Structures are given as C-alpha cells and as structure tokens.
Amino acid sequence: MPVPTLTIGATKLVMDRGDITTQSTDAIVNAANTGLRGGAGVDGAIHHAGGPTIMEECRKLGRCPTGKAVVTKAGRLQAKWVIHAVGPIYAGLTSDNTELASAYRESLMRAVEVQARSVAFPCISTGAYGFPVKQAAPIAIGTVSKFVEDNPDKFDLIRFVIFTDADYAAYFGEFTRRGAVRG
Ligand code: AR6
What we know:
The protein is of the alpha/beta class. The chain contains five helices and eight strands.
C-alpha cells in the first residue's frame, strides 16, 4: 500500500499506521522514561513483546536524561536494536520543544553508532507525557529531516509509526505541507 513519502537524498521518510513492536526496521525507538524502568504505552508494548533481556540491559545502563537516548539489543523482536529515547513531560515551556527535538536527534545518533540503516519512530511524548501532537509532529518530522540532510547516506528508511487517528492527522498534515507523495 502506498504511504506518504518524503525523499531526502537516498533516504525515504514514510509515515504509516502500525504497532512499533512489529516493525522490521533495523532499529525501533522506545518512548522511555528517565529511569529506563518500563511503563505503559510504547514502552510496555516493547518490553512485553521483546522479552526480559531488554530490561536486563536497561538496568545495566541505569538512567537516561530527558532529551537523550540509549541503545539496547531487541530481544525477541524482529528489529536488531531498541533505541530508548526520553521525551519531555509536556509543561507548555519552550524547553519542551528543544527536548523533544533532542530526543529525535539523539535517537538517530545512536542509530548511526550501531549502523542501523532503517529506524521506526513512535510519536514520542504524545501519549502519557501529554505533548500536543499538532505541536509535536512538525518538530519530529523537521528534526529527522534535518538530521538526514546533514547525514547523507546513513539511512535507507525512517518510518513514523502512527497509532491513533489524531496522530495520523497531524503527521499527514505535516508530510503534505512538506510535499510528500504516495510512494
Ligand atoms: N505502537 C506505536 N505507537 C503506540 C503504541 C504501539 N504499540 N502504543 C501506544 N502508541 P506513550 P510518551 C502511541 O504514552 O507520551 C510510558 O509509561 C500512543 O498512542 O507510549 O512518550 C513510559 O514508560 C502515543 O501517541 O509515550 C514513560 O513513562 C505515542 O505512542 C511514558 O509512558 C506515545 O505514547 C512516556 O510517555
């Protein structure tokens, strides 16, 4: 099925409905917390589907500050790597925007380090952390686009995996604004 697609050099950015745990990209991104201790939403789904080895690695890593990301292997998941990114708890401050952008950028830095050529992102911070998706979508897509422009040939595919109708509408609006085609 064709999905909205933006092409930046050799890299495709796509958005699609789906479940982050079933993605076959080299890496998937987790919407984690600073304690790396698991939780609900994306985090719960990844640890449940991936099995206990992911949490064992998280315990060894300890903590991850807001706006940063760490990487573990992916246990039973199809992906090779889980990149645990910590988005901000939305408070209506300018720093929310910079921390969210940082979480996306740091995720891609970890992906480059482990040579993951394809990465699937959930909508970081837009669930339990309350970040309005209309505000988050341009930050997510803009930050990833800029990173890909600045790091040509590092990625084949970046997929934004969308779970809810509201998230889909916001991402679709931003993809369309940036001239996405059905690819
Ligand atoms: N696949 C893709 N997207 C999903 C899935 C899934 N399986 N499940 C939910 N979403 P959230 P946050 C969407 O709450 O806001 C956890 O307890 C969901 O609809 O997972 O960054 C952590 O431990 C929403 O749009 O992440 C942290 O404590 C988006 O994913 C805290 O929540 C993000 O929702 C992180 O909160």
